[in-house]
Design goal:
This protein is an alpha/beta fold. The protein is built from 24 helices and 29 strands. The chain is 39% helix and 18% strand. It is flat and about 85 Å long.
């Protein structure tokens, strides 16, 4: 029987249903005023694998997954523009209910794309307000809740078991709310069950305590009770739900009904992206659409998630994702091959040994990495192909990779079928040279040719296979070998980080090359995860310019990492970094060479900044020394990088990266010098204007915090005379 790590008992427990033969299961579902990212989907896949493992072992599983909708989206935050897509939808006249429906449909589609079995019930929070009110009334009647100022709070000191799930007790217990301290509470730990509606709020309901809306935690308790009863078997969610959400659920449900709420609490760990927790403020949130735009099958992400145990952190990289796609493709190829074999009258006895080892792994706290490794051992074993196929399709009842959907024969155009027949004939005639020529012709046409002892088999190439044939890709700056210790080959290196907007890129590159006429100069452009036609334009331009290099990144690796690639590859004496919004309109290279010939100057450019407290940087340096230089255009000597180092790659977003890098130069004794007369024009900066106000503020704050943590104790690096001390905080 399946054994799972129970967050409540802090041990791996064997699953014993409350009702024999039946499992009742609840999963904390999506908040439907934003897209679900792949980290969310990993948690939902964990619940799916649990459900599949129980189903295959003969249990009847009833699964409920809630929808947190507009009832818990504060109207004033919507109106303030917390989400650009929501603002656009409201501007089109859509209601927030319609917006919620849109994101819910997107979530359902995403679950289907990664083969998550749909829940039996998807209860919406706003459809269950009466059940929530009833439960709050019950808690008040039982002495676990009190009313104050139209709000109703759970009285945490009245529930001695509070903290048992998260192990947050006493002085270590964090306040179980998502807001600042509330003076109406009797105890700071108390959390809101019902919140009085503030003036002007549209989304509200009547209650015995006046108009208002339910607290975040009560919705799951009320809906779980309605569909699963006072007690049920398994509750799943992400590790971030443990406290306060699930801790509060236990208090609410057991306070209302007086018995154990859930037998097994199962939580999935965080998904990291390039080593950092996925977050909008880090610029590393990926959706399934982001993977599909890069030619990745969403089921390859499902495969990838099986390579790391659900309660361990998983570091998502595009390299690992592409490796998973290749592995999945190999499994599909094996199924394709084995389906052509004649049936066996009986499978060999070793088949049962493989089956038992597989189920031992699955039942051991859902150890899918071991189960997957065993699967590959089986695939490479001496078992006959028919037995391998039978086992693989059985294992896939857990994996959910749709291996049973691999066709016996792919539907191919008649011309391709004819070519395959011709190739079979050529091989029979031992005319391998012509057969190989035909193979190359088919491959260039987008097909994989596989020779078997029986015949030539052909299938279409996957989007990733086609994409990887076009040009090479990197996933991080670490994959690029540095040329900084090699001698100069050019006078100048231009570096451009390209993020979509091919027209901006074309304008910038064209101006670079025109400016470089008469100079020895190379241009290095980093295609930083573009998904429009930027990559195609860059490749087309590269064919015309021998001193033009393109490095394609398979996703947005971040501003600092992209620029570091350019710096590492540069071979010019002077390096000039430009933004795509900047257009050179005259000769700037002569001035750059002249200023940087002064070895006390570290960075030179037209857009100098000054500050006297590191809190506010102002663009007011027209000529002379500056505290920092904006990266619309900044130049430096390549040899100085060996002393200064590369940029800090924690800066995924461009904001404040330029200031941080300038301080790296200043810390090594170099000066930053500005000359606003350099012939340049700045156009719309789309990396900035494509964001809403909330995103700009969040990204800027995070990067400014990085800058202050590094340089907040170095006022000696400022040029302002008598620079005063300052707080290391963000005061905007």
């Amino acid at each position: 029987m399946l054994r799972l790590y129970n967050t409540l008992t802090k041990q791996v427990d064997e699953i014993h249903p409350i009702e024999p033969g039946k499992i009742k299961m609840y999963t904390c579902g999506p908040t439907v005023y934003r897209y679900a990212h792949i980290g969310n989907l990993r948690t939902y896949m964990m619940a799916d694998w649990i459900r599949r493992a129980l189903l295959v072992q003969g249990l009847d599983v009833y699964h409920v997954k809630n929808i947190t909708d507009v009832g818990h989206m504060r109207q004033e935050l919507v109106e303030a523009g917390g989400d650009k897509m929501i603002m656009a939808a409201l501007a089109e006249g859509k209601t927030i209910q319609e917006i919620a429906q849109f994101y819910a449909e997107s979530f359902f589609q995403d679950e289907e794309r990664v083969n998550i079995l749909p829940a039996h019930v998807f209860p919406w929070a706003t459809h269950h307000i009466p059940e929530m009110v009833t439960m709050v009334e019950q808690l008040v009647a039982n002495g676990y809740a009190y009313e104050a100022g139209g709000n109703v709070y759970f009285d945490v000191p009245q529930f001695p078991k509070y903290g048992g799930l998260s192990r947050n007790f006493g002085g270590n217990l964090l306040e179980g709310v998502r807001a600042e301290a509330d003076p109406l509470k009797r105890d700071a730990r108390d959390f809101t069950l019902w919140k009085a509606a503030e003036p002007g709020r549209d989304v509200k309901w009547d209650s015995p305590w006046g108009e208002g809306f339910p607290g975040w935690h009560i919705e799951c308790s009320a809906m779980a009770h309605k569909y699963l009863g006072e007690k049920f078997d398994i509750h799943t969610g992400g590790v971030d739900n443990v406290f306060p959400h699930h801790e509060d659920e236990i208090a609410q449900s057991e306070g209302a009904f007086g018995d154990t709420h859930v037998s097994y609490w199962v939580h999935g760990q965080h998904l990291l992206a390039d080593g950092a927790k996925m977050a909008k403020s880090s610029g590393n949130v990926f959706l399934l659409d982001d993977l599909a735009a890069r030619g990745i099958d969403p089921l390859s992400f499902r495969y990838l998630c099986m390579t790391v145990r659900y309660r361990h952190r998983m570091n998502f990289t595009f390299n690992s994702l592409k490796a998973s796609e290749r592995a999945l493709c190999k499994l599909r190829n094996r199924v394709w091959e084995w389906k052509s074999l004649p049936e066996l009258a009986q499978l060999p006895p070793e088949t049962e040994e493989w089956r038992q080892k597989f189920w031992d792994a699955v039942n051991d706290d859902l150890d899918l990495p071991t189960a997957l490794a065993l699967t590959w051992d089986m695939v490479r074993s001496d078992l006959p192909g028919q037995a391998k196929l039978a086992l693989l399709l059985e294992f896939d009842r857990i994996f959910g990779l749709d291996l049973d959907m691999v066709p016996d024969n792919y539907q191919l155009p008649e011309a391709i079928v004819t070519a395959a027949s011709q190739r079979n004939a050529l091989r029979d005639q031992v005319d391998y040279e012509t057969a190989d020529s035909l193979r190359e012709e088919l491959a260039s046409g987008g097909y994989v040719v596989q020779d078997t002892p029986r015949a030539t088999r052909i299938r279409p190439k996957t989007p990733l296979e086609q994409q990887e044939e076009r040009w090479d890709w990197v996933s991080s700056s670490r994959e690029v070998e540095s040329a900084l210790d090699l001698p100069d080959l050019y006078d100048f290196t231009f570096i451009l980080n390209a993020y979509n907007y091919a027209g901006d890129v074309e304008r910038c590159v064209t101006a670079m090359r025109k400016c470089a006429a008469g100079y020895s100069a190379e241009i290095i452009t980093i295609d930083n995860g573009s998904t429009d036609d930027t990559a195609e334009w860059l490749e087309g331009y590269r064919e015309q310019d021998a001193d033009f290099r393109v490095i394609h990144c398979d996703h947005v690796i971040g501003d600092a990492a992209g620029k570091n690639i350019g710096v590492k590859l540069s071979r010019g004496k002077y390096v000039v970094i430009l933004d795509a919004s900047t257009e050179i309109t005259g000769d700037v290279l002569g001035a750059i060479a002249q200023r940087l010939s002064d070895e006390t100057v570290g960075i030179f450019g037209p857009y100098g900044l000054t500050t006297d407290d590191m809190q506010h940087f102002h663009e007011e340096v027209e000529q002379g020394e500056a505290d920092a230089m904006q990266a619309y255009c900044m130049s430096f000597r390549r040899e100085a990088v060996r002393k200064v180092g590369l940029m800090h790659e924690g800066f995924r977003f461009y904001r404040n990266l330029d200031i941080d890098y300038c301080f790296q130069f200043k810390e090594k004794g170099y000066r930053v010098v500005a000359d606003s007369s350099l012939p340049m024009v700045r156009h719309e900066h789309r990396q900035w204007t494509e964001l809403d106000d909330g995103q700009r503020d969040e990204l800027s704050r995070k990067n400014f915090g990085r800058f202050l943590r590094r340089w907040g104790n170095r006022p000696d690096l400022l040029i302002a005379s008598g620079a005063r001390g300052f707080e290391t905080g963000f005061r905007h």
